[in-house]
Every structure is written in structure tokens, then in C-alpha cells.
Design brief:
By secondary structure, this protein is an alpha+beta fold. The protein is built from 4 helices and 16 strands. Strand 10 and strand 11 form a beta hairpin. It holds the Pfam family Oxysterol_BP.
Length: 247
């Protein structure tokens, strides 16, 4: 999967290129996410490279999903780096707190730790300044999600393969907190995509994406229109206009 998105108002750009490799462990499936995430804060002339933790899907006794493992966030221009550890529930998911995150932010040039990170990605995360011993709120999941509104999508002029058309039912389920509907819609989309891929192979057709090019082997896709404005996608959420393109 590859994605490129921009926020021209805040001067933010992001690019994802992921490939998930699952491993089965009896009562759970653990997906290792290979690839790259880039975040550009153009107003500050900063670029961040981000790795993804593993996705854990518990099948029983309590079904659910969690992020586990490590994630690294690096900024070359500021010489700052964050190392994060995601922990899941122990004891087959029956006890403990889900979503726990801990870590540190340090200066690579001096190897000195500046902040300690602690909290839960599905609740709140705080950062403690080790010099002043003061803690500040870094992220509040409830505040970030409480104002989500139903998606406003105008279908006029959209291609049938446009992400907003293909994934609309999944996004609606997420916004409405209907996780079962979102999962079922995602499954149906994936099955249709598999059928299309089989048909292309039978017909001897080679599919080429319009907006991404493969680099560094088969696992990394890159947006091929750098320097050009992303064509507007009619998606409105939280009064924020977001422009996206997706493979």
C-alpha cells in the first residue's frame, strides 16, 4: 500500500509505503509492517522518517487488535530521535492495559535524553522534560476523535478506482464507530481486488499505478509527482480539507 497526502494550509505532507507480512501464533496473528513513512513539516523545513510497530490481531479468547513492538522517529535537520515501545495486553489479552506506549526523545549529536514519553495511544500520552521535570500533554485520543463528522463526498467526476469511492464504506464505518461494518466492508473490497488481479493475470495485462513508482526493490513505492499540487479529493472531515491520492 502506498499513500501520499498534503495539507496545504498547515504546509504538511506525508507519504506511506507499507507491506505487511503476517505470522500465525495459534491464538493470534502478528503482522510485521515493512516500508517507510515520511512526514514533512515544510513550514519548519523538517523531514521525519518513521517506522511502524507490529500489528497484533488476537483471535481468542478476547478478539481485538493492538500495536506492539518498537517505532523510531528521526529528524535529520534537528538531530532529534524518538524511540517508542508499544505494549499489548498480557495473558492472552484478558488482563492489563491496552495501547501502552513508552519511550524517549534524545539528541543524536550529544546522546543526551531530553524527554520521556509515557501513556496510551488510545487515551493520552505525556512528555516529561528531564531538565525541568515538568510534564505536558502530547496527545489526547478522545479530543482528537470526538469531533469527527460523517464524510462529505461528491462523486461527480470521480473515477471508480478513486480511494474515496473504493473505501467509502470502510471510512463511514470508522467515523460512525461501527467496527464490524468497517471490517466487513474492508473484507469485501479486498476480495474484489483479488478477483481483479486474477482476471488481469488471466488476460495478460500489466497494472501500472498512475501516481506512484516502485523504488528500492518491490517493497517501496514513491509519489512520482513531487513539486506538483495534489489533485483535490472532495473529502471533508473536521472542517479540514484533505487532499489525498492512493494506489
Amino acid at each position: 500500500m502506498a499513500l501520499y497526502a498534503t495539507d496545504d494550509v498547515r504546509k504538511i505532507r506525508t507519504q506511506w509505503s507499507h507491506k505487511a507480512v503476517p505470522r500465525f501464533y495459534g491464538n493470534k496473528v502478528e503482522g510485521t509492517i515493512y516500508g517507510k513513512r515520511m512526514l514533512w513539516l515544510d513550514a519548519h523545513h523538517e523531514a521525519y522518517e518513521i517506522t511502524c510497530p507490529k500489528l497484533l490481531i488476537r483471535l481468542f479468547p478476547v478478539p481485538g487488535t493492538e500495536w506492539v513492538g518498537t517505532s523510531t522517529i528521526k529528524c535529520v535537520s534537528t538531530k532529534l530521535e524518538a524511540n517508542l515501545l508499544f505494549k499489548g495486553k498480557p495473558l492472552f489479552g484478558l488482563r492489563g492495559t491496552a495501547g501502552h506506549v513508552s519511550g524517549k526523545i534524545y539528541d543524536v549529536s550529544t546522546s543526551s535524553t531530553l524527554y520521556e514519553i509515557n501513556g496510551a495511544w488510545n487515551k493520552t500520552i505525556t512528555a516529561k522534560n528531564l531538565k525541568t521535570e515538568e510534564s505536558s500533554l502530547l496527545y489526547d485520543a478522545q479530543a482528537a476523535l470526538s469531533n469527527l463528522q460523517p464524510l462529505v463526498v461528491q462523486n461527480k467526476g470521480l473515477d471508480a478506482s478513486e480511494s474515496l469511492v473504493v473505501w467509502r464504506s470502510v471510512m463511514s464505518g470508522i467515523v460512525n464507530w461501527d467496527w464490524e461494518a468497517a471490517r466487513q466492508a474492508k473484507h469485501e473490497i479486498e476480495e474484489r481486488q483479488r478477483d481483479l488481479e486474477k482476471k488481469r493475470k488471466m488476460d495478460g495485462k500489466l497494472w501500472r499505478p498512475r501516481h506512484f513508482v516502485q523504488v528500492d526493490g518491490e517493497d517501496h513505492w514513491q509519489w512520482c509527482h513531487f513539486g506538483e499540487a495534489v489533485s483535490p479529493a472532495p473529502l471533508v472531515m473536521q472542517s479540514c480539507y484533505v487532499e489525498t491520492e492512493k494506489v
